[in-house]
């Protein structure tokens, strides 16, 4: 062993020792759980929650595809508080030190807030109740009744979110020790967030954070100014840079164009290459091949007199083939997760029984201290059980008053089953990082729609889907947060309280944000920007549950069988083929999105992927460091402009110029 290697080993050991000492010192000065929640932290959480609620609401109402922004939220929390403390420092005011615990609390609260905008059904099951979606699903379609309509309203939406979301917070609290400490579930997103936060709050991490903050601010400013500039040229339908016919007018008519959206480019930088390429493949397959071919069969497969938006026309193929892909992918992953859960529990039981007789494996001191802190700051089981019962009773009383179509006894059964479903989902998320809440919701949708009959099936299915999905999703998110808290030495009590505060804020902010979009833009227009594709998909799922396959247009069932089988086959190929082959197998769930939405956003996402790929080739270390910051800046800058542009639209202030493109004559 040469001297250089010796020095390198000594350096690594010294660094590890320093990190251990830092963490042990941190343990000694951890604030009590109540002091970890600060006023400035709540203000920062509110601001981040509002910004991200606007961003994800746009994504929800345009494509329905929302990337994981947890790491981005942690970075933004760091930016906000560090900027605030520096301002106070320059003003000569002494402020409380910014700790990793406070950073974690802000991130948790902000994520809980904007998660309501992601999963509250504003682009899916709740919006599926409105009149426009009812009309798109086909007036006169069996099961699609005129009385199965409830127009969006801030009041009832806030009430629904409050009674449905808080139940999920307490469903798995008694099992937190089992899942985090005993089973040692990894929760990759929670772990990644913790690693980032821990990295910020070290001497070395401070230097890295400065670079990330600088990159974030630069690209945030660039994105905001670009969005502002684009606005001036969007003074009419299909005007502006967002309608630029990059690949020619014929391609543009089939939605193949680059629309200069910094949000989608940023999202593409965050999403994996496989997701982005799957989107592009789905776009090419649908808008490049299938829809032109099926459209050419007008008069043979469906009446030529029907408008394209009719569910018995081309739009029916778009919707139901998307559903087939989503259901095939969802069913496979649902069964796969159940298998992994069963195997994981069996393995853990065996390992734990062996550990009773063997003391060979010893945890490091810091892990023991983390565990001790996590267990010491316990949340009494009676509090969780009493809270779950109280919130369930409130929900059982209130929801049938809002939606008489959903009978109270269905809700009782749902809340009895919810903890076990939540456990399955949270355990699966801990193993695979996949939150399968939507699939549990879809199962509930089909079951309730079928059981409630043709009169009430659509509303009962959509609302029941929302109930199950909310409980299962929020309880899984809480486990991710507990994992982050465990690794950042943050009290579980403060985590639960911050999650509750974030949920309460989100239950108000999300409906207000949605209302802003709903009033300012033409939400649900299949030819507009805000297509809200999943609203129509979910309503048609409910109709399918009520009516059966007679809801499908001609030859659509055979195509659905084919794509359902393709989704299963693609997943099997990915899981059972060698890694060098499996990594190239497309994701059916991602492929399904452009089938209904269009190809333009897939192109944007692939541009983001291309940027990341090129950056890694040029400078891999810098790319690893800066990609999250740059992507967050692009998303936040573009997203922030949505607020003033929405307000301008509400006041009927239109852009002064319409930049449009036509074929030369």
UniProtKB/TrEMBL annotation:
Any one of the GO CC terms: plasma membrane
Start-end of Basic and acidic residues biased regions: 1-17
Pfam families: OPT
Molecular function terms from GO: iron-nicotianamine transmembrane transporter activity; oligopeptide transmembrane transporter activity
Region (Disordered): 1-21
Membrane-spanning ranges: 37-59, 65-84, 105-127, 154-175, 216-234, 254-272, 279-297, 317-342, 379-402, 408-429, 496-518, 552-573, 593-615, 627-651
Membrane topology annotation: Multi-pass membrane protein
GO biological process, one term: response to iron ion
Locations listed in the record: Membrane
Record flagged with keyword Transmembrane: yes
Alphabetic keyword roster: Membrane, Transmembrane, Transmembrane helix, Transport
PANTHER family reported in the protein's UniProt record: METAL-NICOTIANAMINE TRANSPORTER YSL3 (PTHR31645:SF4), OLIGOPEPTIDE TRANSPORTER YGL114W-RELATED (PTHR31645)
Family: Belongs to the YSL (TC 2.A.67.2) family.
Protein name: Uncharacterized protein
Species: Gossypium darwinii (Darwin's cotton)
